[in-house]
Amino acid sequence: xxxxxxxxxxxxxxxxxxxxxxxxxxxxxxxxxxxxxxxxxxxxxxxxxxxxxxxxxxxxxxxxxxxxxxxxxxxxxxxxxxxxxxxxxxxxxxxxxxxxxxxxxxxxxxxxxxxxxxxxxxxxxxxxxxxxxxxxxxxxxxxxxxxxxxxxxxxxxxxxxxxxxxxxxxxxxxxxxxxxxxxxxxxxxxxxxxxxxxxxxxxxxxxxxxxxxxxxxxxxxxxxxxxxxxxxxxxxxxxxxxxxxxxxxxxxxxxxxxxxxxxxxxxxxxxxxxxxxxxxxxxxxxxxxxxxxxxxxxxxxxxxxxxxxxxxxxxxxxxxxxxxxxxxxxxxxxxxxxxxxxxxxxxxxxxxxxxxxxxxxxxxxxxxxxxxxxxxxxxxxxxxxxxxxxxxxxxxxxxxxxxxxxxxxxxxxxxxxxxxxxxxxxxxxxxxxxxxxxxxxxxxxxxxxxxxxxxxxxxxxxxxxxxxxxxxxxxxxxxxxxxxxxxxxxxxxxxxxxxxxxxxxxxxxxxxxxxxxxxxxxxxxxxxxxxxxxxxxxxxxxxxxxxxxxxxxxxxxxxxxxxxxxxxxxxxxxxxxxxxxxxxxxxxxxxxxxxxxxxxxxxxxxxxxxxxxxxxxxxxxxxxxxxxxxxxxxxxxxxxxxxxxxxxxxxxxxxxxxxxxxxxxxxxxxxxxxxxxxxxxxxxxxxxxxxxxxxxxxxxxxxxxxxxxxxxxxxxxxxxxxxxxxxxxxxxxxxxxxxxxxxxxxxxxxxxxxxxxxxxxxxxxxxxxxxxxxxxxxxxxxxxxxxxxxxxxxxxxxxxxxxxxxxxxxxxxxxxxxxxxxxxxxxxxxxxxxxxxxxxxxxxxxxxxxxxxxxxxxxxxxxxxxxxxxxxxxxxxxxxxxxxxxxxxx
Amino acid sequence: xxxxxxxxxxxxxxxxxxxxxxxxxxxxxxxxxxxxxxxxxxxxxxxxxxxxxxxxxxxxxxxxxxxxxxxxxxxxxxxxxxxxxxxxxxxxxxxxxxxxxxxxxxxxxxxxxxxxxxxxxxxxxxxxxxxxxxxxxxxxxxx
Lengths: 890, 143
Hints:
Strand order of the largest sheet of chain A: 2-4-5-7-6
Low-confidence stretches of chain B: 1-7
Largest sheet of chain B: 5 strands, parallel
Oligomer: heterodimer
Number of domains of chain A: 4
Number of strands of chain A: 8
Low-confidence stretches of chain A: 364-369, 535-542, 612-618, 841-846
Mean pLDDT of chain A: 80
CATH architecture of the largest domain in chain A: Up-down Bundle
Mean pLDDT of chain B: 82
Structural class of chain B: alpha/beta
Shape of chain B: globular
Helix content of chain B: 40-55%
């Protein structure tokens, strides 16, 4: 038999081994050797913190007292892992996608990042978990005293040292990293090791009992049949209730959330845990009944069935086995306390201390630099305070039956989160109001019906208030809620608290409207599989750097981002490669990004990619605010940029038109210059010759004077044409409309064009058809005809030029066609003929300025008709069209 | 006899005028003939180079706006042809825009006149480039 001091030495040695495991794991993780850390087995083993000292020792005690009822504690989680695996997977995915840091964070995040909800859940978790920590401390203390037969007083005083040691361990491995990486490889490894020890211990005792105490399984079964365990009646309602309760607990317990979601590094690990964790639970519960039966039948096992696991080997002199059991129970207790303290301290720090600190500190204080240190300090202090409270609770209520029953009470406390949690994941309509009402009411009912009486009982003082109800109202008394004579207070409280909780959650959600942020988060949670990727494996540095680069390029633009990364890589001596995501580089990147998207968002984005996300509630709130502002701002921008795009489009059109007009104007001025300068050149030259009287004879003088005269006329015609065109184009033309007969107009035109008999071109007409009465401006129409006839006269290159003028009356009006028998107009120039100054390459010289057809077309437009070139194989054909209203048979 | 005297004795030489406006062509012909040049006229752009090759003139007056081919194109080809490269050219334009003058210079015109110009101006320009003509003739250039 070991002495008390010997046992303490063993415990300390064991703890040192755990420290070593944790240190080694931390170092391996830092160096990137993470294969074994990252295995699904480690993950599964870490889940075993569900089985605490309460189950390690208490299951046997429960079996001795109440038969197989202890199985419900394992049945609930097993059913969840097998039947509700999809829900676990969704929780893990959401946890990773939203960078959730705790169960309180999960609820807060789902309901629009509500700070109040986070505080409520944190309080619930702390209140529900602290007595449970006390229970663990008691288990260790009891096992000390059972082992060493010391007075329990001495054991109680050891509790403070155990609590201090656990606080130290949790602080060292739970709040170690300054970058607040939410995964703690060292801590998880130590817990996995403890899981192996506690399983090994209980299986070893079981094997010893079955084959050492009894003669194998058959004998064991016979002994069980003979024992009172077999006679214990099964209470169906209680079985159902406890199974449901433990199922709810595995989803809602803060420490379970910590290992299940927060510490999960690879979603695929969950698949392994899906069968391996139930298997672990089955193995750890397999020998519970044999040990209980052995404990009841063996002498010297003491009167506390909760310690049978330890006293059975002790009573038979199996000290080594007993020592293993002691370490197993120690493991079960310590791993639970460590993870619970870590999870609670994260909540307290993130949702209570840091927001308070931020509110109390000056707004202009350097926010980010101090933020992490404050968060870390808050966590460390929280860990110490939580463990201290646990020890105080144990000091006050240790050894009472009340403490032993705290396990299930604690389960029911955290189970109040379940409706809001599951509802939030499955139902987009769930709202903050519903969640707050449900959790608040459930919390209150649970505390009043179970927690307060339990605390009172463990204090040994039950005030009248609890017996007769507040203000003497009997149905408010915990012992007789709603006037019910509760035969099973736990079940009654469970039905009442969870029932009212769920009802208020549903009603509150139905009768309130979610805020935009809630709708956004609701969609993110419910449809998490639609827009998130499974997190596979430990994210390598290169992958993270690449992700960072892609993100930076999206936000800063390609050039700036690439320059930043190149410079950072150069500084790290990794020229031509991607820079390592060192803290310095990440800080720099965050600052650069913050210029575009704001500090909180930049931090959240970088953290998300590097997996170093510890986004406190204020970070999240800041992100939310920024996001809202950015959304508002960007919608305004969108409207503005649309306007701008339209304006720019209009400007481009106008500019194109102006440019075109300007080009046209330049070309036009250039053409006019040419057309004016050409005759002036002749005039100037010949007039200078004439001024020198001695230079020329009379014949030459006459000829040169005629040329000057002709060129002057040409200039005048040009100016007339230009003015005419200008007036026509500007629409300032006044038409002199009157009655006329087509044949008369044609007569005048042929005469004016000098195309009568002997004019160098034969005109063929059908006078009978020309007897059409017109209502038009006859002078203007004649001008068009003159232009067409003189063009034919000038340009028709046939040996015996001929112009056919034909008339055709149609329903739409009157067509007058002018067709010559020349070589026509080359196809490539057809498009140009109506342009100003378009003079075509023709065999004959071109004395006109090239404005005739342009003017004619404008005139016809004013007369509501038109002038068109009719393409064809023979000579040039022009068609003048007059509207029906303007013409009638004469 | 000096080189210049020799050249003068042989007469100023042949001028080819490419100009589509018959009245202008007539005025130029009259003036330059009076100055002693043997003047030939041609009114089309597309056949101008063939005319140069046929006549081998000592000097060319070249209008820009011509039917068939622009004066600039003709000058460009002229300067690219080793046989005609050194022919002195006076460009005439009626558009009066500076970029026409710049383009003419860039393409290697020896002188540039904007219509309308005075007869004296024309004669002075022709006179100015005559030494070039003489020198080229003396060293056995084209012509």
